[in-house]
Amino acid sequence: MTEAARKLAPQGGELELRDVASGYGAITVVKGVSLRVRPGEIVALLGKNGMGKTTTLKTILGMVPLRGGSIAVDGVSVAGLTPTKLASLGVGYAPQEQPLFQDMTIRDNLRLAVASDRRLPAALDAGFGYFPFLKDRLAQRAGTLSGGEQKMLILARALMLKPRLLLIDEISEGLQPSVIDRIASVLLSERDAGGASILIVEQNLDFALRVADRWAVLKLGEIDDEGPAEPQARDRVLRHLSV
Ligand SMILES: Nc1ncnc2c1ncn2[C@@H]1O[C@H](COP(=O)(O)OP(=O)(O)OP(=O)(O)O)[C@@H](O)[C@H]1O
Fold first, then answer.
1. Residue with CA nearest ligand 1 atom 17
2. Count of alpha carbons within 13 Å of 72, Cβ hemisphere only?
3. Helix, strand, coil percent content, the chain, rounded in steps of 5
4. Can you tell me the distance from the alpha carbon of 6 to that of 10, in angstroms, rounded to the nearest whole number?
5. Which of 5, 107, 159, 202 has its CA 20 to 30 A from that of 152?
6. What's the ipTM?
Protein backbone atom coordinates (compact mmCIF):
# COMPACT_ATOMS: atom_id res chain seq x y z
CA MET A 1 0.00 0.00 0.00
CA THR A 2 1.39 3.42 -0.93
CA GLU A 3 1.76 6.23 1.58
CA ALA A 4 -0.90 8.23 -0.30
CA ALA A 5 -3.33 5.32 -0.15
CA ARG A 6 -2.61 4.87 3.53
CA LYS A 7 -3.68 8.45 4.13
CA LEU A 8 -6.90 7.81 2.23
CA ALA A 9 -7.64 4.63 4.13
CA PRO A 10 -10.74 4.53 6.31
CA GLN A 11 -9.93 4.38 9.99
CA GLY A 12 -9.41 0.85 11.09
CA GLY A 13 -10.08 -2.50 9.55
CA GLU A 14 -7.49 -4.22 11.72
CA LEU A 15 -8.16 -7.85 12.57
CA GLU A 16 -6.36 -9.64 15.36
CA LEU A 17 -6.77 -13.31 16.24
CA ARG A 18 -5.02 -14.54 19.37
CA ASP A 19 -4.86 -18.26 20.16
CA VAL A 20 -8.23 -18.82 18.50
CA ALA A 21 -9.73 -22.28 18.94
CA SER A 22 -12.98 -23.58 17.49
CA GLY A 23 -14.54 -26.69 16.03
CA TYR A 24 -17.58 -28.85 15.62
CA GLY A 25 -18.96 -31.17 18.32
CA ALA A 26 -16.15 -33.21 19.83
CA ILE A 27 -13.64 -32.09 17.20
CA THR A 28 -11.41 -29.05 17.61
CA VAL A 29 -10.53 -27.88 14.09
CA VAL A 30 -8.81 -24.53 14.75
CA LYS A 31 -6.14 -24.97 17.42
CA GLY A 32 -4.64 -21.76 18.74
CA VAL A 33 -4.45 -19.58 15.63
CA SER A 34 -2.86 -16.16 16.00
CA LEU A 35 -3.04 -13.92 12.95
CA ARG A 36 -3.13 -10.22 12.23
CA VAL A 37 -4.43 -8.22 9.26
CA ARG A 38 -3.26 -4.63 9.56
CA PRO A 39 -5.35 -1.72 8.25
CA GLY A 40 -5.31 -1.65 4.45
CA GLU A 41 -3.45 -4.94 4.16
CA ILE A 42 -4.35 -8.08 2.19
CA VAL A 43 -3.39 -11.30 3.94
CA ALA A 44 -3.76 -14.77 2.39
CA LEU A 45 -4.60 -17.76 4.55
CA LEU A 46 -3.35 -20.82 2.65
CA GLY A 47 -3.37 -24.55 3.26
CA LYS A 48 -4.44 -27.87 1.89
CA ASN A 49 -8.05 -29.10 1.96
CA GLY A 50 -9.60 -29.62 5.37
CA MET A 51 -6.95 -27.71 7.35
CA GLY A 52 -9.46 -25.31 8.91
CA LYS A 53 -9.29 -22.23 6.69
CA THR A 54 -13.04 -21.83 6.20
CA THR A 55 -13.67 -22.69 9.85
CA THR A 56 -11.29 -19.87 10.82
CA LEU A 57 -13.29 -17.39 8.72
CA LYS A 58 -16.58 -18.68 10.11
CA THR A 59 -15.24 -18.34 13.65
CA ILE A 60 -14.33 -14.69 13.01
CA LEU A 61 -17.87 -14.18 11.71
CA GLY A 62 -19.50 -15.85 14.71
CA MET A 63 -20.93 -18.65 12.56
CA VAL A 64 -18.83 -21.21 14.44
CA PRO A 65 -18.55 -20.52 18.20
CA LEU A 66 -15.23 -19.42 19.63
CA ARG A 67 -13.88 -22.04 22.07
CA GLY A 68 -10.74 -20.26 23.13
CA GLY A 69 -8.63 -17.18 22.49
CA SER A 70 -9.80 -13.79 21.28
CA ILE A 71 -10.84 -12.03 18.10
CA ALA A 72 -10.72 -8.27 17.83
CA VAL A 73 -11.56 -5.81 15.07
CA ASP A 74 -9.87 -2.47 15.63
CA GLY A 75 -9.02 -3.55 19.15
CA VAL A 76 -12.62 -4.35 20.11
CA SER A 77 -13.62 -7.93 20.88
CA VAL A 78 -16.14 -9.31 18.39
CA ALA A 79 -16.51 -12.71 20.10
CA GLY A 80 -20.15 -13.72 20.40
CA LEU A 81 -21.44 -11.17 17.89
CA THR A 82 -23.82 -12.40 15.19
CA PRO A 83 -22.89 -12.16 11.50
CA THR A 84 -25.56 -9.45 11.12
CA LYS A 85 -24.07 -7.38 13.94
CA LEU A 86 -20.59 -7.84 12.47
CA ALA A 87 -21.86 -6.67 9.08
CA SER A 88 -23.25 -3.53 10.71
CA LEU A 89 -19.78 -2.93 12.19
CA GLY A 90 -18.23 -3.06 8.73
CA VAL A 91 -17.10 -6.67 8.54
CA GLY A 92 -17.91 -8.08 5.09
CA TYR A 93 -17.92 -11.67 3.86
CA ALA A 94 -17.71 -13.24 0.42
CA PRO A 95 -18.55 -16.89 1.17
CA GLN A 96 -17.58 -19.97 -0.76
CA GLU A 97 -20.71 -22.03 -0.08
CA GLN A 98 -24.24 -21.28 -1.34
CA PRO A 99 -23.55 -17.61 -1.65
CA LEU A 100 -26.37 -16.50 -4.00
CA PHE A 101 -30.13 -16.92 -4.34
CA GLN A 102 -30.08 -18.56 -7.73
CA ASP A 103 -33.75 -17.89 -8.62
CA MET A 104 -33.57 -14.23 -7.70
CA THR A 105 -32.35 -11.44 -9.93
CA ILE A 106 -28.96 -9.80 -9.57
CA ARG A 107 -30.71 -6.70 -8.25
CA ASP A 108 -32.59 -8.64 -5.58
CA ASN A 109 -29.45 -10.50 -4.53
CA LEU A 110 -27.73 -7.15 -4.05
CA ARG A 111 -30.78 -5.61 -2.41
CA LEU A 112 -30.83 -8.28 0.29
CA ALA A 113 -27.36 -7.21 1.39
CA VAL A 114 -28.29 -3.62 2.25
CA ALA A 115 -29.90 -2.64 5.53
CA SER A 116 -32.58 -0.48 3.89
CA ASP A 117 -33.80 0.29 0.36
CA ARG A 118 -32.75 3.90 0.94
CA ARG A 119 -29.13 2.78 0.78
CA LEU A 120 -29.58 0.63 -2.31
CA PRO A 121 -28.86 3.20 -5.08
CA ALA A 122 -25.52 4.24 -3.57
CA ALA A 123 -24.59 0.61 -2.91
CA LEU A 124 -25.48 -0.40 -6.47
CA ASP A 125 -23.39 2.45 -7.87
CA ALA A 126 -20.46 1.30 -5.77
CA GLY A 127 -20.96 -2.29 -6.97
CA PHE A 128 -21.03 -1.18 -10.64
CA GLY A 129 -17.75 0.63 -10.03
CA TYR A 130 -16.10 -2.71 -9.28
CA PHE A 131 -17.83 -4.80 -11.97
CA PRO A 132 -19.59 -2.60 -14.57
CA PHE A 133 -21.23 -5.55 -16.38
CA LEU A 134 -23.67 -5.87 -13.48
CA LYS A 135 -25.38 -2.61 -14.40
CA ASP A 136 -26.89 -4.00 -17.60
CA ARG A 137 -27.78 -7.35 -16.10
CA LEU A 138 -29.76 -6.34 -13.00
CA ALA A 139 -32.93 -8.16 -14.10
CA GLN A 140 -31.10 -11.41 -14.91
CA ARG A 141 -31.52 -14.33 -12.51
CA ALA A 142 -28.30 -15.01 -10.62
CA GLY A 143 -28.50 -18.72 -11.46
CA THR A 144 -28.19 -17.95 -15.16
CA LEU A 145 -24.85 -16.15 -14.73
CA SER A 146 -21.65 -18.01 -15.56
CA GLY A 147 -19.55 -19.30 -12.66
CA GLY A 148 -17.12 -16.40 -13.05
CA GLU A 149 -19.92 -13.82 -13.20
CA GLN A 150 -21.43 -15.29 -10.05
CA LYS A 151 -18.10 -14.90 -8.24
CA MET A 152 -17.88 -11.28 -9.38
CA LEU A 153 -21.44 -10.69 -8.15
CA ILE A 154 -20.53 -12.17 -4.75
CA LEU A 155 -17.51 -9.89 -4.52
CA ALA A 156 -19.45 -6.82 -5.70
CA ARG A 157 -22.13 -7.54 -3.08
CA ALA A 158 -19.52 -7.56 -0.33
CA LEU A 159 -17.50 -4.57 -1.57
CA MET A 160 -20.49 -2.31 -2.33
CA LEU A 161 -21.17 -2.09 1.41
CA LYS A 162 -17.75 -0.48 1.84
CA PRO A 163 -16.57 -2.81 4.60
CA ARG A 164 -13.64 -1.93 6.85
CA LEU A 165 -12.63 -5.57 6.84
CA LEU A 166 -13.52 -8.15 4.21
CA LEU A 167 -13.18 -11.93 4.51
CA ILE A 168 -13.10 -13.75 1.16
CA ASP A 169 -13.32 -17.54 0.86
CA GLU A 170 -11.76 -19.17 -2.22
CA ILE A 171 -13.03 -16.60 -4.71
CA SER A 172 -10.75 -17.92 -7.47
CA GLU A 173 -11.96 -21.54 -7.26
CA GLY A 174 -12.80 -22.99 -10.67
CA LEU A 175 -12.32 -19.71 -12.53
CA GLN A 176 -10.61 -19.17 -15.85
CA PRO A 177 -7.47 -16.97 -15.86
CA SER A 178 -9.19 -13.92 -17.39
CA VAL A 179 -11.75 -13.81 -14.57
CA ILE A 180 -9.04 -14.35 -11.96
CA ASP A 181 -7.22 -11.37 -13.51
CA ARG A 182 -10.32 -9.17 -13.20
CA ILE A 183 -10.81 -10.17 -9.57
CA ALA A 184 -7.13 -9.63 -8.78
CA SER A 185 -7.22 -6.17 -10.29
CA VAL A 186 -10.33 -5.24 -8.27
CA LEU A 187 -8.67 -6.37 -5.03
CA LEU A 188 -5.43 -4.56 -5.83
CA SER A 189 -7.29 -1.35 -6.73
CA GLU A 190 -9.25 -1.63 -3.50
CA ARG A 191 -5.99 -1.81 -1.59
CA ASP A 192 -4.39 1.01 -3.53
CA ALA A 193 -7.44 3.19 -2.98
CA GLY A 194 -7.13 2.63 0.75
CA GLY A 195 -10.27 0.49 0.99
CA ALA A 196 -11.02 -2.56 3.10
CA SER A 197 -8.43 -4.66 4.88
CA ILE A 198 -8.82 -8.11 3.37
CA LEU A 199 -8.28 -11.69 4.55
CA ILE A 200 -8.46 -14.18 1.68
CA VAL A 201 -8.62 -17.93 2.03
CA GLU A 202 -7.11 -19.47 -1.09
CA GLN A 203 -5.98 -22.68 -2.76
CA ASN A 204 -4.67 -20.79 -5.80
CA LEU A 205 -1.15 -19.90 -4.70
CA ASP A 206 -0.27 -17.69 -7.67
CA PHE A 207 -3.42 -15.60 -7.28
CA ALA A 208 -2.88 -15.35 -3.52
CA LEU A 209 0.73 -14.22 -3.79
CA ARG A 210 -0.20 -11.75 -6.52
CA VAL A 211 -2.76 -9.89 -4.43
CA ALA A 212 -1.56 -10.41 -0.86
CA ASP A 213 0.95 -8.45 1.19
CA ARG A 214 1.52 -11.38 3.53
CA TRP A 215 0.58 -15.05 3.75
CA ALA A 216 0.12 -17.68 6.43
CA VAL A 217 -0.15 -21.45 5.99
CA LEU A 218 -2.66 -23.32 8.11
CA LYS A 219 -1.85 -26.96 8.81
CA LEU A 220 -4.19 -29.13 10.89
CA GLY A 221 -5.66 -26.04 12.51
CA GLU A 222 -2.36 -24.34 13.38
CA ILE A 223 -0.30 -21.66 11.64
CA ASP A 224 2.65 -23.63 10.27
CA ASP A 225 4.53 -20.79 8.59
CA GLU A 226 4.00 -17.19 7.51
CA GLY A 227 5.81 -14.42 5.72
CA PRO A 228 5.69 -11.55 3.23
CA ALA A 229 4.31 -12.22 -0.28
CA GLU A 230 7.62 -11.74 -2.06
CA PRO A 231 8.56 -13.74 -5.21
CA GLN A 232 10.76 -16.20 -3.31
CA ALA A 233 7.82 -17.09 -1.04
CA ARG A 234 6.29 -19.30 -3.75
CA ASP A 235 8.66 -22.23 -3.31
CA ARG A 236 8.50 -21.99 0.46
CA VAL A 237 4.69 -22.09 0.47
CA LEU A 238 4.61 -24.85 -2.16
CA ARG A 239 6.69 -27.04 0.12
CA HIS A 240 3.99 -26.69 2.79
CA LEU A 241 1.18 -27.41 0.36
CA SER A 242 2.79 -30.48 -1.17
CA VAL A 243 3.79 -32.39 1.96
N1 LIG B 1 -20.22 -28.22 9.79
C2 LIG B 1 -19.23 -29.07 10.05
N3 LIG B 1 -19.42 -30.10 10.92
C4 LIG B 1 -18.42 -30.97 11.22
N5 LIG B 1 -17.18 -30.89 10.71
C6 LIG B 1 -16.94 -29.90 9.82
C7 LIG B 1 -17.94 -28.95 9.46
N8 LIG B 1 -17.39 -28.08 8.57
C9 LIG B 1 -16.11 -28.48 8.39
N10 LIG B 1 -15.84 -29.57 9.14
C11 LIG B 1 -14.56 -30.27 9.22
O12 LIG B 1 -13.57 -29.36 9.70
C13 LIG B 1 -12.33 -29.60 9.04
C14 LIG B 1 -11.84 -28.30 8.44
O15 LIG B 1 -12.74 -27.88 7.42
P16 LIG B 1 -12.60 -26.47 6.70
O17 LIG B 1 -13.74 -26.37 5.73
O18 LIG B 1 -12.43 -25.40 7.70
O19 LIG B 1 -11.23 -26.68 5.92
P20 LIG B 1 -10.58 -25.83 4.77
O21 LIG B 1 -9.15 -25.68 5.13
O22 LIG B 1 -11.36 -24.60 4.52
O23 LIG B 1 -10.68 -26.84 3.54
P24 LIG B 1 -11.26 -26.65 2.06
O25 LIG B 1 -10.18 -25.99 1.31
O26 LIG B 1 -11.51 -28.06 1.64
O27 LIG B 1 -12.52 -25.83 2.16
C28 LIG B 1 -12.57 -30.70 8.02
O29 LIG B 1 -12.14 -31.92 8.58
C30 LIG B 1 -14.07 -30.68 7.84
O31 LIG B 1 -14.55 -31.96 7.50
1. 54
2. 14
3. 40, 25, 35
4. 9
5. 5
6. 0.95
Atom of ligand 1 nearest to the CA of 25: 4
- How many residues appear in the chain? 243
Index of the ligand 1 atom closest to the CA of residue 201: 22
Q: What is the pTM of this model?
A: 0.92
CA proximity to 14, closest of 36, 35, 45: 36
Q: What CATH number does residue 190 fall under?
A: 3.40.50.300
- Nearest atom, ligand 1, residue 96 CA: 27
* pLDDT tens-digit map of 42-98: 999 999 999 999 999 999 999 999 999 999 999 999 998 988 889 888 999 999 877
Q: Which residue is closest in CA terms to ligand 1's atom 28?
A: 50
Of ligand 1's listed atoms, the one at least distance from the Cα of 64 is: 1
What single-letter DSSP state applies at residue 10?
P
54: CA distance to ligand 1 center in Å?
Answer: 7
Domain that holds residue 50: 3-242
Domain count, the chain: 1
CB of 51 within 6 A of ligand 1: the answer is yes
Cβ-Cβ contacts under 8 Å for 203 (sequence gap 6 or more): 46, 49, 170, 172, 173
Q: Read off the pLDDT of residues 105-138 as tens digits, 9 standing for 90 and up.
A: 999 999 998 988 899 999 999 999 999 999 999 9
Q: Whose CA is nearest to atom 29 of ligand 1?
A: 50
